[in-house]
UniProtKB/TrEMBL annotation:
Identification of the protein by name: Adenylosuccinate lyase
Pathway membership: Purine metabolism; IMP biosynthesis via de novo pathway; 5-amino-1-(5-phospho-D-ribosyl)imidazole-4-carboxamide from 5-amino-1-(5-phospho-D-ribosyl)imidazole-4-carboxylate: step 2/2; Purine metabolism; AMP biosynthesis via de novo pathway; AMP from IMP: step 2/2
Adenylosuccinate lyase C-terminal domain ranges (all copies): 374-458
Organism expressing this protein natively: Exidia glandulosa HHB12029
InterPro entries: AdenyloSucc_lyase_C (IPR019468), Fumarate_lyase_CS (IPR020557), Fumarate_lyase_fam (IPR000362), Fumarate_lyase_N (IPR022761), L-Aspartase-like (IPR008948), Pur_lyase (IPR004769)
Domain of life from the UniProt record: Eukaryota
Keyword set includes Lyase: yes
Pfam family for this entry, one: ADSL_C
Keywords recorded for this protein, A-Z: Lyase, Purine biosynthesis
Record field: catalytic activity: N(6)-(1,2-dicarboxyethyl)-AMP = fumarate + AMP; (2S)-2-[5-amino-1-(5-phospho-beta-D-ribosyl)imidazole-4-carboxamido]succinate = 5-amino-1-(5-phospho-beta-D-ribosyl)imidazole-4-carboxamide + fumarate
Similarity comment: Belongs to the lyase 1 family. Adenylosuccinate lyase subfamily.
PANTHER family: ADENYLOSUCCINATE LYASE (PTHR43172:SF1)
Length: 483
């Protein structure tokens, strides 16, 4: 049996998530990023006058990626030192001996751990944003295609006035646009911890530069630039504030709320047999009931969305329970929470893209359901028509009330079709408008401005929101689920 089958692995990486997101939070990427941070610190310190040789810099540049031998050395060092950062400082020094004495110079462990986390969060948000834009694009195409297809609306999950399939989709799209905004804000607001020292006072760096405050400020700014951030947080303790994690996971949890609502709607529509998620030729819906087409993709979205909500609470709790300049009770927690949050959001987006690329619509089922309910909804139009033909509104209302109750009794108690309109046709009172009844029951006259709302929304809101992502969207391939 292989090691992969003999030990627990998170389903997020082994079963569901994209390779891109799983790799970002891998040990290989983590320790590679630590080495880049040590390199950037050494480059900036050299530029500002510290005695760091070009040979040291070149050796560090040449060994930014760890091989299997390096991982083995690091593992042995960590067993001995009980400190992961110092284990990797020593390991880096074995392949960059000219730099061994200056790696991590003046820094605390959080220089690499916290700054690396901020780099991972920034990159992960960018990955999610591209995928979210793809989901929005796919759903906007679906909304446009079905902009005028009448569907029964529901309030309290009870039949209500008609809407259209496209209009309902715009309700999902609007929330996804807000998520696009929220994740973009989270990415653009993200700062860098920079070089702040053991308690955030930069005392060690002030010592290195013989009390030269300007050089310490320049060091912080230069490392921040080398790492691709526009600014560093102006003050920090040993760590960057864990409120940053809570803010980022808040945006992810809010997206989870959108995804859960969208997929819940699709699960209900699947039960109504109006809209279904993709169902592959050989797919099995139930091990016992062969006829079933369970909405497993949307169920997966709902399941993972709830997990995403819970992770935000974890981040909030961690942020609120830090003591003074830092405690270490956040470390093990964050090693789990941060990767899981992004991997979970990644899986949800991948699944939503797959769903949005293959949704199946059943207009005849919708038309049949509309036909069952529309006669009741048309009663007001019928009353208005008979009044225009010279009838009395109160008398017409009473006639319709009696006929409606008769038809409703047949539907509810005997399971028969709604025959209200036939009853209206046969009643002599409504003879003056008999020729108008078919027109009064045309579903397209009950959807209001839904098609026009879809057109305006897609043109004025969705199109501008997707404009910055057009290059990325051209590269996004059709989403295939691993399982």
């Amino acid at each position: 049996m292989s090691d992969a089958q003999d030990v627990y692995q998170t389903p997020l990486s082994s079963r569901y998530a994209s390779q891109e997101m799983a790799h970002l939070f891998s040990p290989a990427m983590r320790f590679h990023t630590w080495r880049k941070l040590w390199l950037n610190l050494a480059i900036a310190e050299q530029e500002l006058g510290l005695p760091i040789s070009d040979e040291a810099i070149e050796q560090m540049k040449a060994h930014l990626y760890l091989d299997e031998a390096q991982f083995s050395v690091a593992a042995e060092e960590e067993k001995k030192r009980r400190h992961d950062v110092m284990a990797h400082v020593h390991t880096f020094g074995t392949v960059a001996p000219a730099a061994a004495g200056i790696i991590h110079l003046g820094a605390t462990s959080c220089y690499v751990t916290d700054n690396a986390d901020l780099i991972f969060i920034r990159e992960a948000l960018q990955i999610l944003l591209k995928k979210l834009a793809a989901v929005i694009e796919r759903l906007s195409n679906f909304a446009s295609q079905h902009r005028a297809l009448p569907a029964l609306g529901f309030t309290h999950f009870q039949p209500a006035q008609l809407t259209t399939v496209g209009k309902r989709c715009t309700l999902w799209l609007q929330e996804l646009l807000w998520d696009l905004r929220n994740l973009t804000r989270a990415r653009d607001d993200l700062g860098f911890r920079g070089v702040k020292g053991t308690t955030g006072t930069q005392a060690s760096f002030l010592t290195l530069f013989n009390g030269d405050h300007d050089k310490v400020l320049a060091l912080d700014k230069r490392v921040t630039e080398l790492c691709g951030f526009s600014y560093a947080y102006p003050v920090s303790s040993q760590t960057y504030s864990r409120k940053i994690d809570a803010d980022v996971l808040g945006a992810l949890a809010s997206f989870g709320s959108t995804a859960h609502k969208l997929s819940t709607d699709l699960r209900l529509l699947a039960n109504l047999k109006e809209v279904e998620e993709p169902f592959e030729a050989g797919q099995i819906g139930s091990s016992a009931m062969a006829y079933k087409r369970n909405p497993m993709r949307n169920e997966r979205v709902c399941s993972l969305a709830r997990h995403l909500w819970a992770l935000q609470q974890n981040a909030l709790t961690t942020a609120g329970t830090q003591w003074f300049e830092r405690t270490l009770d956040d470390s093990a927690n964050r090693r789990i929470t941060l990767p899981e949050a992004f991997l979970t959001a990644d899986v949800i987006l991948k699944t939503l893209q797959n769903i949005s690329e293959g949704m199946v619509v059943y207009p005849k089922v919708m038309a049949r359901r509309i036909a069952q309910e529309l006669p009741f909804m048309a009663t007001e139009n019928i009353i208005m028509a008979i009044v225009k033909a010279g009838g009395d509104r109160q008398e017409a209302h009473e006639k319709i009330r009696v006929l409606s109750h008769q038809a409703a009794k047949l539907v509810k108690e005997e399971g028969l079709e709604n025959d209200l309109i036939e009853r209206v046709r046969k009643d002599p009172y409504f003879a003056p408008i008999a020729g108008q009844l078919d027109g009064l029951l045309d579903p397209s006259t009950f959807i209001g401005r839904a098609p026009e709302q879809v057109d305006a929304f897609l043109e004025e809101w969705v199109k501008p929101a997707l404009e910055p992502w057009q290059t990325d969207l051209k590269r996004v391939e059709k989403a295939e689920l691993n399982v």
